[in-house]
Structure formats: structure tokens, C-alpha cells
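Quick one from the shared queue. A colleague (R.T.) flagged Transcriptional regulator with XRE-family HTH domain as missing a structural entry in our internal table.

Convert sequence to C-alpha cells.
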Amino acid sequence: MNTVGELLRQWRHRRRLSQLDLAIAAEVSARHVSLVETGKSRPSVRMILRLADHLDVPLRERNHLLLAAGFAPRYPERPLDGDALAAAWEAVARVLRAHEPYPALVIDRGWNIVMANRALDPFLALAHPGLLEPPVNMVRLGLDPRGLAPHIVNLAEVRSLLRVRIARQLASAPDARLAVLYEEFLAGVHEEPVHQEVATPMIFRFDGREVRLFSTTTRFGTPADVTLDEIAIESYYPTDAESVAFFSSTSP
């Protein structure tokens, strides 16, 4: 098991910072950073969290840093639909409902779908039932030949965009399960997205009709819970009148 100093050094290297860079940002001496990383000085909880903050370490990994130093985890991980996060659950559910008739969904750090609004149903209806067994994974749903892949007109662009996003995510905070997903669907992908529009759309074909969508991603601003830190709301918007009409015709 790595020591807290070794873990901090790994995060510093991942962020491409020198000991001096981190020391200046955290307002401590470079010598102290060096002593912590080499294990010659045992950092306090406050110092660990201070360094982690300037290294932009996710909350789950901050707990790992604390455990490695012999301290209790600071950030709880509670189910989104539990009593403790009831207000957050209702806020997210309200955002999803308000976005109808256009699709919106909540994904966790592994791109598993946690919640979705009713506008996603026509897309799910295109997938093989085996891909809809919980947890439904957004990447697998989109790129598996049994899923949405045959219905995505610009599949190469979509795959390339996902590769860039997930590669960036893995570089920021490694995750073994996400790495497996990347290797399964995205490793070796070299297509480059075409930047001809403000945002590269996803183009779906439904019964001869093309539906063009672009997406936005929303996260909680100041989470103090691992679950909230790791979820994101993906909201999709139509790019043209024909796509608007499609959702108007399919909305309940």
C-alpha cells in the first residue's frame, strides 16, 4: 500500500507540477512538500486536504489520502436516492423533468446511468434488452452494435469525442473500471471530430428521420459527498426545427 507521501507525489506528477509549484500554490515551503512526499514528515489532516485541494484531487481519492496517513475518511459516500441526499435527488429530478421533451440523464464517474427523464425512452427502445440490465452504461449503450451505434449517423465523430472525454477523465483521476470500458470501445480510435459547427452534434436516424442533438454537462458546484462529486447531468438539445418537431411528436 502506498504511503500518503507517495500518493501525493503521484498526484503532483499527474498535475505536472514541481514541488515548488505546489508549495507556492499551497503557501507552504518546498522543503515541507519534499519531507511529506519522502515520508520524513507526517502531514496533518489539514495539510493533506490543503495539498489535495491545490492538486484538484477528487473527493474519493482524498479519502484514500487520509486513510494512507492513518486518518478517518472525511467525505461520506451516500446513495443519491437516500434520505441524506433527498434535497439533491429532488433538485436533480426537477432538472431532468424540466428538460423534457428533450433527453437528459445523470451519469456517475463510470458513465453508468443513474437517472433519466422520459425523453430517453425512444432511444432505449432501440437497444437490445441485454444492454438495459442495470447498471445501464452510457458508453456501452451508445457504441455497442446491439445498442445505438447502428442508428448514429456520425458514429466516428461521436466515438472520437467520447475517446477524448474519457481519456481526459482517466488522466485526471484513474479508474480501473473506466479504463476497462475505454479499452473495450475506444482504444485505438484515431478519428478526429470535424469542427464545422458551434458544437459537434450527435445525429440519430429514426425511421428515416434524422435527429440532431448537442449536449451540455452540469455538475454540483461545491459537493462534500463522494456521490455528488462524481455525478454529472448530461442534457441534450435539438439543433434544428426538424429535431424539435421529432421530440414534440414523441413526448408523452
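The first helix runs from residue 4 to 14.
The first strand starts at residue 104 and ends at 107.
Added to the table.
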